[in-house]
Design a protein that fits this description.
mainly alpha; 4 helices; globular
């Protein structure tokens, strides 16, 4: 991920920090991680809608909606990670490297 991405995540985190300044730090961490689940639910809803899987609603969403909701999950996860890890960019890079090395060891 580029520096701009993490800069934007930092801006979102700061805004959330300012908005939740009265909450206990543990509560903030918990709420940010739980928010990932909420966003995942929105992906599931969009996916059902794109597939027309709910006969009552039909095709209520598009694949663009699914993409947008997936991006929201990623951003929300990055904000949560930045909330609990001061070096979130490093944590993500290290984890991605480990995952790639595990499934594609010949590339290392």
């Amino acid at each position: 991920m580029g520096d701009r991405t993490w800069e934007q995540v930092g801006r979102l985190r700061k805004w959330l920090d300012d908005e939740t300044a009265d909450a206990a730090p543990a509560d903030v961490r918990l709420l940010r991680v739980l928010k990932i689940g909420e966003e995942y639910g929105e992906v599931a809803e969009a996916l059902h809608g794109a597939l027309g899987a709910n006969p009552r609603k039909g095709r209520s969403h598009t694949w663009t909606d699914v993409q947008t909701e997936l991006a929201d999950v990623i951003v929300t996860s990055m904000v949560a990670l930045a909330t609990i890890a001061p070096d979130a960019d490093h944590v993500l890079d290290e984890r991605l490297d480990a995952l790639v090395a595990r499934v594609l060891p010949e590339l290392d």
